[in-house]
UniProtKB/TrEMBL annotation, chain A:
PROSITE patterns: TAT. Gene3D superfamilies: SoxY domain (2.60.40.2470). It comes from Bradyrhizobium niftali. It comes from the Bacteria. Residues 59-161 form the Ig-like SoxY domain. InterPro entries: SoxY, SoxY_sf, Sulphur_oxidation_SoxY, TAT_signal. This is Thiosulfate oxidation carrier protein SoxY. Pfam families: SoxY (PF13501).
TrEMBL record, chain B:
It comes from the Bacteria. This is Thiosulfate oxidation carrier complex protein SoxZ. Pfam families: SoxZ. Residues 7-100 form the Sulphur oxidation protein SoxZ domain. The lineage of its organism: Bacteria, Pseudomonadati, Pseudomonadota, Alphaproteobacteria, Hyphomicrobiales. It comes from Bradyrhizobium niftali.
Amino acid sequence: MTTTTGPHPTRRLILQGAAGVALLGLGNLPFGAAPARAAANDKYPEEAFKLKNEADAIKALYGKTVEPSDKVKLDAPEIAENGGVVPISVTTTLDKVTSISFFVAENPNALAASYRIPDGTLPAVANRLKMAKTTNVTAIVEADGKLYSATKEVKVTVGGCGG
Amino acid sequence: MASSIRVRSTSNGDITEVQALIQHPMDTGLVKDSKGEVIPAHFIQQLKFECNGKDVFVADWGTAVSKDPYVKFSFKGAKKGDDLKISWTDNKGGSDTTTAKIA
Amino acid sequence: MKARSALLLGSLSATLVAFALTSPRVIAADKVDPVADAKAFQNFYFQKFPDVKHEDFVNGPYSMNEDMKRQWQEKEEFPPYEFALDAGKEMFATPFKNGKTYADCFPNGGIGIRQNYPYFDTKEGKVVTLELALNRCREANGEAPYSYVKDEMASLTAYMAFTSRGKPMDIKIPDDPRALAAFENGKRYFYTRRGQMNFSCASCHVQSPGERIRAEILAPALGILNAMPIYRSEWSGMGTTSRRFVTCNSQTRAVPLEPQADEYRDVEYFLSYVANGLPISGPGARP
């Protein structure tokens, strides 16, 4: 710890100010006006991960409405052998995919993972997620600036959050 | 120290398939240890794959990603012998990086 | 099938009691005949599950349920025991302080020999498991023994099992009355009811493989040790044969034995012998 004052206090103030603005911005964002996930920079979407509810998390991450699509193929087990490790994958025939995200509706925080798909990367991801209890899982594919989803129920008998 | 990152990347003509497994507790912050004390959240937030100077895949993760996380994806434009750089950072400022040759 | 999958512990035990009255044992116990026992044991499973390929029995619960098998196959693409396997390989190659290595303690330098464990040691007159042999190797070289249930021990056995993958289990019963007695004792332990719930190992793993008990699908006893050690998601880590035995005893509120107690060694001998011919598949990944 140093006791010099110097620029530190000012810098902190500025940072706080910026954060405040960002939060306000999120809250007031009208539907459709938010930057698409892909257009956003490299920043980790901290706020979206903190939200409990799926609709709120989708709004914070994308700020747009979602339509279900049979072009999004979500693969998830019917009964998870262990809620701590549930294999979930998605593929899609949609073009111009820029991101794929996974939401677990009944988890304490709905957003589980969000993947950026740059040009040249195939629109398909497999990962393993935790589920606290029986829940819907939704994959959202962002393609050409629009959002498409697929949802499946996964039954969980051994939960993934109780350890 | 052995790397926390295991990668398999294989080129199959124009498409490179990548699978990675990372050793990390991915603690949710909701679980108590045997003494009844909460284990603080400790999880990877961002995982990046770069090839030939360009991001080919970026994962943003929350606490719902399983312990020792696994991910699989494929991309175009690389060839056998190219370097794939993998790096992650977690919510406590921890990080690791490794480079794998595409086979 | 759907209705049965909701089976809980209580109703399961009721089913088992009914079952026990009609066909108590797979194996006739008149006289100690391990060859006949192994044959009867294998035939029981092959007939009960005609659609399961013989070599698939070694995959525990995954041989019994398609939805679970798919989740397992996905896991196997990059299995959770990978880190333990790497650690075990490194440990195996690292010399002790005296310059010797594990390889010096085992036939064929310890590579590709897992299918011969446990074996009956005619000098000692007892069953020797791989875990026991590893700790004896450490102690003979001035190193402290490892815990028998997880961590280093599971990493070492994971690596040794990996070098034996696909090799048929090949347990010998030497011409020694004590070896036959050990086999018989293991068999007795396996079929004896114990604990508050009055279950034997066979109640679950012979009479009910494929059934759900709470959330889990029961593994068949045939080939039940071929995948050891295992990474269990429920444990968030690796466990040895001893760890699994202790867990099964505790789950039925029976008093678990010390890892590597004589009875555990004997039951391991019995279960391994009756799996002769089935491939080693360890290390395994389990729910």
